[in-house]
Amino acid sequence: MTAPLVDIRAVSHRFGQLAVLKDVSLRIEPGSYTILLGPSGSGKTTLLSILGGFVTPSEGKVFIRGEDCTAVPPARRPTTTVFQDYALFPHMSVGGNVGFGLRMQGVDGTTRAARAREALALVGLASAFDKKPHQLSGGQRQRVALARALVIEPAVLLLDEPLGALDLKLRRQMQDELKAIQKRVGTAFIHVTHDQEEAMALADHCVVMNDGRIEDEGPPERVYARPATRFSATFMGESTILAGTVAEARDRTSTVTTPAGPVLVRSALPVGSAIALAVRPEHLLLGGAAGTASLGMARVSDVVFQGSFKRVLAISIEDPSLQFIAKLPASATVQPGDTVAVSCDTDQIIVLTD
Amino acid sequence: MRRIVRVASWVYALAVYGFIFLPVVVLVLFSLQATSFPIPPFTGPSLRWYDAVLSDTRLTSALVNSLLVASISSATAVTLGFLSAWGFARFVLPGSGLLRGLITLPLTVSYLIIGMGLLVLFNWAGVPKSLLAAGIGHVVINLPLCFAIIYSQMGDHQINIERAARDLGAPEWKVLLLITVPVMAPAIFAGFFLSMTFSWDEFVISFLLTRFDTTLPVEIWNLLRSGLNPKTNAVGSLVFAVSIVLVVLFELTLLRRRKA
After folding, report:
1. Residues in CB range of B2: below 8 A, 6 or more apart
2. A90 touches chain B (CB under 8 A)
3. CB–CB of B164 and A87 under 8 A?
4. What domains are there in chain A, each with its CATH number?
């Protein structure tokens, strides 16, 4: 295996008394699209600032291309940042903005203009070269910021909630473009967001952060299907969570006592340990065809039609504090107030031991 | 009743504006007097006194001196004010609030006190009375002003812009010169023009700190000592005209900033 492009080793950071990063280690491969996903206050933006060189961590080291960059200032490290507010230079033309990094490297005017035009063409804004930033729309400014950061060919491109200021439709469109651009240039992108849909759509490698720690990391498909912790099961998509205790363990299965009754799971667990079971909304079955694992009865409290599916909330009869979140086909006929049997397939139960 | 109030408010407004502007109107009007005394009846209009002013080498050299002192001292004040504003806005300094208060404190001290203080200091340091000394005095009074104007406009929204420049490889001095200064240009120009205005018609400090070569307000005062003369009106009108131009430039730069 090749050496990682970025190697974050045991980084901790404090702002005054407040610990915002707690012993974070992360490796990023060349050419990958990494998403740092987490709620606000999870430390994801601080981690990005540490990568960009704007913050020096209290402890730990950051290696980029094998070099210790922990205390190297932003100007002299092979990273560039796309800021959340784009931070375009308002007094310069779009061409001047994109060419700025090359100008700082001492590239002559003609080459600079040519390369700036190339970078603008890459983001689909070839015609904006002579415009001023204030003449552009939010989405266009975003592209200019991207072109400006990419033109100096950084080893790593850092994006701080780059789509946060755009409206939903534009955000989805820019998402696709970001991914396409990343594949075309082959630069490693590290992208901070709190939007889990964005994370699933873009990431090769998804890093779920909470409270200054990495909760889970891996391909988004894996993080979604088999979340490592209760936090990542609820933050990366929704889940119904059943707290339980292991009552009986056999060779490759265990029986877990939950408020909704005993549930058989396909893993050997120590008897008596407290665990949690998570089930994704699309795997919950209400009424009709029963799955292999019964989760008791529930009263439907809410049905929301969402176009391609119905989102159903149901309260367990056995334990009113337990709420099931299910995603049913649009043709489902459940009504609020119905009492239904809840079940799922044993294979779809996620065991969380944290 | 309402009509009375309306009429009364008009009368009041006229009285206030008359009180403020009548002296200026009289000054300008009698600078156009054709005869030798700036008193009624008005005999003009005539430009003979303007002609006299412009052919008086003492007045014209004082005018040039004034322009030099005003522009150089304002440029110095605005540069120093900008650098201190940038320092206060971008770096965490111990006792920042106290230091900021100290830097703006000269705004509250009378020019007479500042002038006397500088006179004593320059005497002690062996700096002769000169235009340079007066210029330094003007920097002392205008630096706090430039600082206050520029600091108030230096918001957090520029921090990311400066960061972006650094991120793209700009050394600190290039960040300042290529990014911060152009972005802050309206406030910098506003500070410059306001300093020019104050320096241009400043009398007390110039009077105390200059001797042979002096500024226009001091020269006018010399002229006044030999009695009223339409020439003083003419030169006063010229001073006033330049001040107006400077104030208009100041307003324009600040106004453009607000629109942007």
Report:
1. none
2. yes
3. yes
4. 6-234 (3.40.50.300), 239-352 (2.40.50.140)
